[in-house]
Amino acid sequence: MAIKITGTGSYIPSSIERNSDFNRHEFLNTDGSSLMQNNEVIIEKFKAITGINERRYADKNLTTSDLAFYAAKDAIKDAQINPEELDYIIVGHNYGDVKHNTEQSDTVPSLGSRVKHLLGIKNPKCVAYDLLFGCPGWIEGVIQANAFIRAGMAKKCLVIGAEALSRVVDKHDRDSMIYSDGAGAVIVEETDGSGGIIAHESATYALDEAHFIYFGETNNSAITDQRRYIKMYGRKIYEFALKNVPTAMKACLDKSGYQITDLKKILIHQANEKMDEAIVQRFYKLYNMEMPQGIMPMTINNLGNSSVATIPTLFDLILKDELTGHTINQGDIIMFASVGAGMNINAIVYKY
After folding, report:
1. Which pTM value belongs to this model?
2. Is residue 343 within 8 Å of residue 212, measured between CB atoms?
3. How many CB atoms are closer than 10 A to CB 237?
4. Three-state SS string across 222-242, please?
5. Which runs of E-coded beta strand occur in the chain?
6. What b/e string do you get for 105-135 counting C-beta neighbours within 10 Å, with b at 16 or more?
7. Number of helical H runs and strand E runs in the chain
8. Is the N-terminal amide bond of 343 cis, ω within 30° of 0?
9. Sign of the C-alpha dihedral, residues 275, 280, 283, 287?
10. What is the pLDDT of residues 118-153, one digit of tens each?
11. What are 104-116's pLDDT values in tens digits?
C-alpha cells in the first residue's frame, strides 16, 4: 500500500497588489511613532529581503472558505474521484472567514463544514473539520490524512490550505506587505504500488516561542479600532527558523532512508526569500554539501505569503507546468517543509 497525493488544485485570486501600491500607506512603529525612512526606501528594503514584488488579494465578495472550495473542486477533478467517497475534509487555515470591511472572524460552522456544503456532499460519514496549526497547517493536514488511512479509518481525504490574510493585516504595519490570499488543495488516498508519503516530522515550540506570531492592535494609536491584526516578531522568527527548521528537515530525511543527494525539490513555506535560502543552505551544510541550484522553487515574488496555501499552491503549479524552470517527475523524491505560528515546524519526504 502507498498513500499518495492523487490530485491537486489551487485558487490564485486575480487582484494584484503591487509594492508600489503601498506608497500611499502610513507606516508606523509599534508605539505609533513615524518611521525614520520614507515609503520608497521602506519598500525597496522590503523587496530586497523578502523577494516579494507583488501579492494577490481575494475579491471583496469572497471569503477564505470560498477560496478553499475553488481549490478543492480543482483537486477533486484532477484526482477524478467522486466527492461522495471522501472520508475526511481537513481545512488548514488560521483566521476563519473574515468578510471585507468587517471586524469579526466567523468560524462557526467550521470552514470544513462550509466547504463540504459548497461541494454539495451528502454523505454524513464524510467528516469535515478545521486545523489551526499556523503556516504548517496544510502539511500537518496531510500527515493526519496519512495517519487516518494507515489506521484503516479512511481511504480518501481532501486536505486544503486556505487563507485571506489581506483581511487581517494592519495597513500601518510594514509587515502587512508580506501577506496575501489564496488556497491549495490535494486528494490523499490509498493506492497500489510504492512511493507516496515516506516519512514525516512535526514539532511545536511553545515555552518561549508561543507568541512570536500573535493577534494585536493597530500601530496607529490615534484611531479607535476594535479589530485585531496579524503581528509578528520578525527577528525572533528568523532566528528560530534558522536554528530549528534545518534540523527538523534532516530528521525527516534521515527517517525516510533516502540520501540528501536523492532530493530533487524542496517545497518550503515562503514567508521570506532570504530566510528560506538560509534555511535550505543550513540544511545542506548538515550533510557537508552546498545547496544545489534549482532545488527550491519559489512563487513568493508574485504571490507573496499566503500562509497555509503557499506549499499546496506551489505544488499544484509545478505539476501543471505553470512554474517556469521546475518539474517534478515520476519517481522523484521531494520534501515539503514549513514553519509558522505555534511555533510549529513540520516536514514530509514524498516519492512522486
Report:
1. 0.94
2. yes
3. 20
4. CCCCCCCEEEECHHHHHHHHH
5. 2-11, 15-18, 54-57, 88-92, 127-131, 156-164, 181-191, 196-204, 213-216, 229-232, 263-268, 333-340, 344-351
6. bbbeebbbbbbbeebebeeeebbbebbbbbb
7. 8, 13
8. yes
9. negative
10. 999 999 999 999 999 999 999 999 999 999 999 999
11. 888 999 999 999 9
Q: CA angle, corner 169, sides to 163 and 173, nearest 5?
A: 145
**Identity of residue 274:** K
pLDDT in the model for residue 266:
98
> What are the angstrom distances between the C-alpha of 337 and each of 29, 67, 126, 345?
32, 23, 28, 8
Rounded mean pLDDT of 30-53?
90
Q: What is the CA radius of gyration of the chain?
A: 20
Taking alpha carbons only, the member of 59, 58, 47, 67 closest to residue 301 is: 47
Give me 6's grid cell: 492523487
- Are residues 161 and 314 in contact, defined by beta-carbon separation less than 8 angstroms? no
Q: What angle do CA 290, 266, 93 make, to 5 degrees?
A: 140
Grid cell locating 94: 488560521
H-type alpha helices, 80-196 = 111-119, 137-150
